[in-house]
TrEMBL record:
Keywords: Lyase, Metal-binding, Zinc. Residues 3-105 form the CENP-V/GFA domain. The keyword Zinc applies. It comes from the Bacteria. The keyword Lyase applies. Pfam families: GFA. Transmembrane segments: none annotated. This is Glutathione-dependent formaldehyde-activating enzyme. One of its GO terms (molecular function) is carbon-sulfur lyase activity. Belongs to the Gfa family.
Amino acid sequence: MKISEIQCHCGAIKIKLSGGPIAQFYCHCDDCQAVHAAAYVPVALYPAQAIEVIKGVPTETVLRTTPRMRCPTCGTFLFSELTNFGLRSLSASLLPRDEFKPQFHVQCQYAVLPVKDELPHFKAFPAKFGGSDEMVDW
Ligand SMILES: [Zn+2]
Ligand SMILES: [Zn+2]
């Protein structure tokens, strides 16, 4: 099994990743826009136990319902807890650049900055993640 270590931008938090992600994508939802102060964010989805904090103690913030972990020193967003699904979604900007291989876009219904590329653009989520497979037309 592949194991890799990543860290926040200041190094106060170190995270061990066991195995590869379940899926990688861009999220355009309004929660991500608000907490990341960004138009959309790169996400890598892992089983919860595959993301382990091995140095430092992240600060938890909740905008609506999803607990999001960030570094208390540099403020970098690390991952969100998707407890109902037993998953954690990692800020994929923390991965080495060649390890982020986006497969699709989700929550395009909220997009403020449409990204026109060759990937599927789901209005909400793919059916395999509880969505409807409905697409947007960009
Ligand atoms: Zn930090
Ligand atoms: Zn989102």
